[in-house]
Amino acid sequence: MTSTDQQAFLSVRDLKVHFSTEDGIVKAVDGLTFDLEKGKTLGIVGESGSGKSVTNLTILGLHDRHRTAIDGEILLDGKELITARESELEKLRGNKMAMIFQDALASLSPYHTIGKQIGETYRKHTGASKQEARARAIEMLKRVGIPQPDMRVDDYPHQFSGGMRQRAMIAMALVCDPELLIADEPTTALDVTVQAQIMDLLKDLQQEFGTAIVFITHDLGVIADIADDVLVMYGGRCVERGTKQEVLRTPRHPYTLGLMNSMPTLDGPVDVPLSPIPGSPPSLLNPPSGCRFHPRCSFAEKVAGGLCSTEQPALEVVGGRGSACHLTPEQRQEFFADFAVSRHN
Asked: For residue 112, what are the domain limits?
């Protein structure tokens, strides 16, 4: 995770996304900062409602401007996106940046063939003819591993399996060779075999095109497979970030630790029970005071002065490694020791 704007292809600075509702203001994203370089994958992980998808829909400009208050800065290859006109964003979407959605069946039109839907994006951004767009659609279906692409190009979404529909969505997202690809839990509804195939496909395509990828998931196992850097979100805020190795091997935030303790491992002791995080994610309409994780944190009472419930911890970043927690390094080393022992012995 780069620390300099000059190197960052995608740069997000102090992003706030608040929605106006009948019940009040929902602080879906509340001060998020990160960078992403070309050819790298940033994994954003967190429970449902943590702000992952909202962040990436905001990058694409897919929000109701009349009901959404957005503050901060989003730079894509030096171009500011928050203040960009809709016409400018339309030129970028599908062309310079694209998104793979979680539910391919819901995202694809049941009334049009797969080839037409892939080709439509290509024609819009390149001015290609129908014949050229069809040829490009066949080429992309072949590239993502669809058998007999010259025949399947005329099939409808319901004629594809779940894994093939997801491959078709990837083909559609990549048809214009975007430089930024946002994948919103694209493997959640797939079985593990197909999931592994999709992950390998994304890595191969990234190597071929040098694409920057933002990969959204709640699954740390997926993060371990595909990400270079990891950003952990909770309650609309970043609570920890760093390289994959740093975050997964030596977590610094109790929430990250909780996520990892909830995940089974293949190489650890078989008699170590899983420890789910107690309670539920916070309301973004009325978030808790202080650290938003403190009502669920087993270490909050160990911090002197009750800081966890009264003062929001800042995200302290050194060399790209950061965490937002009131625990001292000494306390963290002591309290997290059992995790290291159970996971790596």
From this structure: 108-174
Please write the tens of the pLDDT for every residue from 111-163.
999 999 999 989 999 999 999 999 999 999 998 889 999 999 999 999 999 88
**Amino acid letter at 272?**
V
Given the DSSP bridges, would you call strands 68-76 and 79-80 parallel, antiparallel or unpaired?
antiparallel
Tell me how far apart the alpha carbons of residues 2 and 91 are, in angstroms, rounded to a whole number: 27
153 Cβ neighbours under 8 A, 6+ residues apart: 113, 114, 115, 118, 134, 137, 138, 141
Q: Rounded to an integer, what distance in angstroms lies between the CA atom of residue 82 and that of residue 273? A: 45
Global confidence as pTM: 0.89
Residue 324 token pair = 């937002």
What sign has the CA pseudo-torsion 256, 258, 263, 265? positive
**Considering the domain boundaries, does residue 222 fall inside one?**
no
The span from the CA of 343 to the CA of 269, in Å, is 7
